[in-house]
UniProtKB/TrEMBL annotation:
The gene is LOC106459397. Residues 5-205 form the Tr-type G domain. PROSITE patterns: G_TR_2. It comes from the Eukaryota. Pfam families: eEFSec_4th, euk_SelB_III, GTP_EFTU, GTP_EFTU_D2. This is Selenocysteine-specific elongation factor-like. NCBIfam families: small_GTP.
Amino acid sequence: MASDVLNINVGVLGHIDSGKTALAKALSTTASTAAFDKNPQSKERGITIDLGFSSFQVDFPECLRDETTANTRSLQFTLVDCPGHASLIKTIIGGAQIIDMMMLVVDVTKGMQTQTAECLVIGEITCDKMIVVLNKIDLLPAERKLSMIDKMTKKMQKTLEKTKFAEASVIPVAAKPGGPEAGEIAPVGIQDLIENLIKQAYVPYRKSAGPLLFSVDHCFSIKGQGTVMTGTVIQGSVSVNDTIEMPSLKMTKKVKSMQMFKKPVDTAIQGGRVGICVTQFDPKMLERGVVSSPGSITVTYAAVASVKKIPYFKSTCRTKAKFHISLLHDTVMAKVTFFGLAANIIKENCDNQTSDLKEKDAEDISYFDFSKEYKYQDELFPEGSRNCEEKLVQNENGFVPIQQFVLLEFERPVLVPHGALFIGSKLDSDIHANICRLAFYGYVQELFTDIKYTENGLPNLKIYKQKMKEGVVERIVNDQEVIGKSLFKKETNIQTFIGLNINLSTGESGKIDGSFGQSGKIKIYIPDGLKESTKSLLSTTKKKGKGKEELAMSAHTNVDQHVKLQLTFKRYIYDTKKRMIQL
Ligand SMILES: Nc1nc2c(ncn2[C@@H]2O[C@H](COP(=O)(O)OP(=O)(O)OP(=O)(O)O)[C@@H](O)[C@H]2O)c(=O)[nH]1
Ligand SMILES: [Mg+2]
């Protein structure tokens, strides 16, 4: 690998027309002519209309020097220029997977706009470092320029206060002073911005383990050589002579040669921007997409993923609703089913463990586990604390999910690698309405690759619904038996409920023994016998009403005298046998 250059990918995001492309241009040009740049312009630009790539290099800053960068001479910033229009989300997620840092471009005359906010959300999900660039400062009146910049800086800082970018720098620039009609006027503030980028730069954590995942953003042929796919290694590594797969085409090819920063290399690892050359491959077949180790990505029909609600999304995310799910370079509709791990399960774990183990438990719960039970949720709850002892949110049934998951059932099969980030959104919302369309995000954990997953996969998910049935004791048969009514309808198959535990409001617990008569009544066996107080209560009730009607009357007039029955059980929503489960 070209160890003399360290590459950092910087996303350039912001509202439409804020000047992202102008900024990427200004940065590449300024840096390449600046004194500190030994390597003249190194600029590669994608032909695709959406994501644009350009880059510039600076001397490697000594403050980043460590054992892994002992021989590194240059720091390369690859700028990923994203579109700002409404289709941004689909396009950007492919780009966002490779971003180490982000520049949020804001038109200083407009401030925060709808897509500025959406970009901020994407930034929070995909990277840890951000710089806010206030562009178009040439449009501010000269006499009030400084105070207006100051005001907007404070406004942005206030907006960022509640995000993980609370400490972000805000840099004023004019990427293209005078706008499109103006001639070649030198940009303003770019040098400051480059210095800030260098200050914020870090050596990203890269590892070569795991199957290859290569995100292709540009594919073209070179006469006499073959077809080159340029892109970024998202996971694993790739070497010359490796066999790689284009899973969308079900095709494999051998890597003939590779280039990084215009120099031939033998290997590239995670984070590296590389051009991979293969032969006998029509570039039109894969303008943008994913390349992987053979067999490592399969077509998926449904997936289980961890999920968090995006706080800026103001509507409710309901189970069974359809959302746009963006994964890598693809966006597909999916039906969602939310479920969560209840806090009390973890609470038990937490109480008896040392604090080290508590943390471990808290970590483990973020992974979906087929052997664990999860509670069905009608909707996705907003996030609260991540601490396992604190409540995330409590719904009306007292249920506290401390980790939420989603089952995504895709409308068409998609290519999804394990661990992939996804973003769920409502892209059909009115793009002119000033709302955040991004609803939730998470990481894919389990894949259902069988087309018959509803029969062969879903029944393995232990997602339960809590059920409760209530009735009353109609009369006493003997010390250990009562007759219950109003729990079931006439047509209910009571056979399936035999043996289930049932509680009396007077404190006794019984078991359903069988049906009684034809109207849905049941016989209840009380193993420990009825209490004396219950017996007298039941005999008074009985004496009071001689006929059925009168008994019903007394139920209305003096409900407290009745002994109530409560039957609670769980049912797994995907259990084909619809079994009832009690603890
Ligand atoms: N006056 C002035 N105009 C600018 C500046 N930067 C960009 N512009 C103009 O603003 C318009 C939009 O600039 P772009 O760079 O295309 O904006 P963008 O954010 O890439 O736009 P999209 O990619 O469509 O979202 C163009 O007409 C630019 O010439 C600036 O610093 N000052
Ligand atoms: Mg642009």
